[in-house]
Every structure is written in C-alpha cells, then in structure tokens.
Amino acid sequence: MTSTVDTTEGLTERLARHIVRVAETPPSPHDTEVVRRLLLDNFIVSLWGMTRPAATEIADWTKRFAGSGSSPVLGRDWLVDPSIAALVHGTAAHSFELDDTHNSTASHPGAAIIPAALAVAAEPGRPLTRDEWIAAIIAGYEAMALVGEAAGGMAAVHRGFHPTSLFGAFGAAVTALTIRALRAGVALDPALVVKTWGLALSQPSGSMQFSVEPTGGEVKRVHAGLGSHNGVRAADFAALPAVTAPRLALEGTYGVAASFGAAPRDALSDKHLQDRQIYGLSLKPYACCRLFHSTIDALAIATDGFTVGTADLIDILVTGPTLIAEQHMTPAESSMTAQYSCPYVVSSTLAYGPTAYDSYTEEYLDDPTILSIASRVRFEVDAELERTHYPEHFATAVRLTYADGTVRAAEVVDSVGTAQNPMSVNDIRAKADGLARHGLTGVAARLTSILWDDAAQQAELSTALQRESLTLLGPSSHPG
C-alpha cells in the first residue's frame, strides 16, 4: 500500500513562512524608532513590576537555578537558564498593568517577547548587533499577534483564557529561534518554526478565573512570564530531533484555534493586518486594564481635566462592551482586582487622578474616598458602541449626574496610548516618575540615553536595565 502525504501548505506553514520573512528583513529607521519606544516602555514598567511582592518572590525563588545558564535575573545578582530569566522579567513586566497591548487579541506582547529577547541574547556566542536583536523582537511581536488573530483573537478571552500567556509562547519562541539562527549564521527555517509552534501548543496557560474572584488574582501577573518561559522552552525542545510535534498547531482539530479560540482564519489575508504588528500597538499611560483607558480619558473630558469635584456626584454610569459586565465588575479586594474592576478604576481616578499608580496597591483598597465614589458607579452594555468599535477599539462612554441635575458626559473611542492617539517619548518617560517614591530617580533619562544611542549594542541595553533593577531593589534583594 502506498501512503500519500498531504503537501498542501496550511495556515500554520503559511504564517511560519511570513514570520521568517519578517525575521530576515533588516529593520528600517522607523522600525528602530518604534522598537526603542517599546523597549523604553517595557524597561520602565518592568521596574514598576519589581516593586510588587509576587515578582520579587518569584525572583527569589530562582536562586535554586543559579549557575544553570548565563542570563541575568532581573533585580538579582545570579545567572540562570534563559527560560527562567524570561519567567521573572515577563512576570515583572506584567505586574503593574502598564505593559503594551495588542488590542484585537487583548494580549500584552512586550511582556512575553522582550524578556525572551534579553534572556536568549545573553547566551554564549557571538554578540548580536542592535539591528539583529531588533529584528528578532519585531518577528516575535508579529508572531504573537498574528497567531492570536488566526486563532480568533478576543474569542479566547470570552472562552476564559488569557491571551498573553496563551499566544505569548508562540511569539517568544520565534524571538528565541531568530536570535539563535542569527548567532549561528544560518537561515531561520520555516519548518523549525512550525515544529516549535507544535511544541508551544502543548504548553498553553492562563485562565481568566482571576478576573471573577475578588482575591487570588496575583497569578495573573505570572501569565506573561509563563508565556515567555514556555516560548523559550519550546525553542529549546525544537532542537531535539526525537521530540517531534504536530504540524497544524493553529488550524488542527485540536489546535490553538479550536481548543482556545474560534474558527481559524487566515490573518495574512486581512487587509487590517498588512502592516507590521509593532505599528498598531497601544501603550498604557494608566495602571489598569486597557479596557478602561478610554473611560479614564472620557472622565477627564467630562470633568474638565478632573477639576470638577465629586462631593455632589450622585450617579456615575459607564457604558461599553459586554466583556466589562462579564469580567470587570468584581469587588476590589486585591491589587489585581482593583486594576480590573470598573468601579475601582473609575473611583480611584476621580479621587486621585489617572496617574497615581500607587492608588492600585493594597494600601488604598479601603480608602474611604475611593469606596464612597465606587458605590455610585454603574455599568451598562452599549450594544451600538460594541458593534461599531470592539475589539479593534476599546471604546467606552461615561455619564456623570450631579445633585443639582447637571449631567456631564463624554465618549472616547481611541484612548491616549493607542496607535491612533499615541504617546510621545516624553509621555513614556513620565511613567517612571513615580519610581522616585521607591528610591529610583532619573531612570527615564538614563534609559532614554542608552536606547537612543546609535552606537549602543544589544548587550549594553541589557546591562542598563539590569543595573537599574539592582539599584531599585538594593543590597537586600540578593539573599544568599
């Protein structure tokens, strides 16, 4: 009997070939500028993340792996296997709800891709040039976003899976593969990408259960770290000939689309996805779920820049997509639920302003001003707003009613930080201002200087972040 092999190129293979083309394309000056901003943002939010207990405890936990590799652990003075270093950095980057966002997949690519890029680049061998490293980052972002799109995008969230950890492994794996191929001086093989994605398919993680329980949500911070870790580990195993993997990781009967998302679709044919995915990302000026950034901007409009007081405010109505009703009305009994809770985000913003990041920490959960305002917050689904804009645009609206009958209302489609309403470099730098309260001053200026230095190579960028993390956490962060 003669067996036949189906040689038709499927969705996984087509996407893998596209990713290889992206990885092999030298970054343009515009690409480099975009990635510099993403790196500055990631470095700052990762330092914020290292002020959180969950990130520092996981960093301490990695001491058992000291000496297992050459990748530095963020905020610690030991070296580990790159997958372990990526776990810590990814967790830190996602630990203050400030990391970049790919809106239509509701994922946070930078928190999975950049940690893998730094960790794998620290492996022994020829130093990478800055452009090589940037190309690997761009390819990782492209892979994570397009795998997410191919698997149904936001459908994963509605089915209860967190896209950052789910799709993060696919992107981080591509970044790791690209760096290793560049260092070895060989072409990245699409078949190796396909195999690595088959391995990543067996490592999905990240339940959305954290979003509907008032406590116990700190594991959500770890989701990005798991995505980054799992991607590096998938790339490791892909080099083992005996460890084979499925070819149809995306469109297969039990592939990522069927198991976690919606019907697979050819993301490469979508005219909205023709540009590089790094061009369409959103950065976060506010330390909460991206869904509420338009709400915060609408509050700013309705209150004339937060100059109108709240004493006579009797009703606060927020309207927007169904997902807010499903996953974002949980009472804020932890830092995580505070950053995911519509009533808390609105009340914290009205009480202390939109950039008081520390107002989402445990010390503020029982704040009487926040609790008083939160008791007046309601949410209603706006079907028209959802149908017109969601999920490409996280549009919401607010209506504030005062005791004298005055009503102030505003609607925002594209919040500050989206591709349509981008943050400037100075806006990104301002995210570091509050770190002074944690003993780290001048960090934004130092990071900007090295990131925009055309002569600086990849290793110098990694060293700069590590130096800042050690300064932030001090000698006590290095337990013996």
Question: Could you characterize the architecture of this molecule?
Answer:
- There is one protein chain.
- It is globular and about 70 Å long.
- The chain has a four-stranded mixed sheet.
- A hairpin with a 6-residue loop joins strand 1 and strand 2.
- The protein is of the alpha+beta class.
- The longest helix is centred in the middle third of the chain and has 22 residues.
- 48% of the residues lie in helices and 6% in strands.
- The protein folds into two domains: 270 residues, 2-methylcitrate dehydratase PrpD, CATH 1.10.4100; 123 residues, 60s Ribosomal Protein L30, Chain: A (2-Layer Sandwich).
- Helix 2 packs across helix 4, helix 2 runs antiparallel to helix 19 and helix 4 runs antiparallel to helix 5.
- It comes from Gordonia asplenii.
- This is MmgE/PrpD family protein.
- One of its GO terms (molecular function) is lyase activity.
List the topology elements:
Layout: H1 11-24, H2 29-49, H3 53-61, E1 71-72, E2 79-80, H4 82-93, H5 109-121, H6 130-150, H7 155-158, H8 163-184, H9 190-200, H10 219-238, H11 256-260, H12 293-302, E3 313-320, H13 322-327, H14 335-340, H15 342-352, H16 368-374, E4 377-381, H17 383-389, E5 396-402, E6 407-412, H18 425-430, H19 443-451, H20 458-473
Parallel strand pairs: 3-4
Antiparallel strand pairs: 1-2, 3-5, 5-6
Pfam families: MmgE_PrpD_C (PF19305), MmgE_PrpD_N (PF03972)
GO molecular function: lyase activity
Organism: Gordonia asplenii
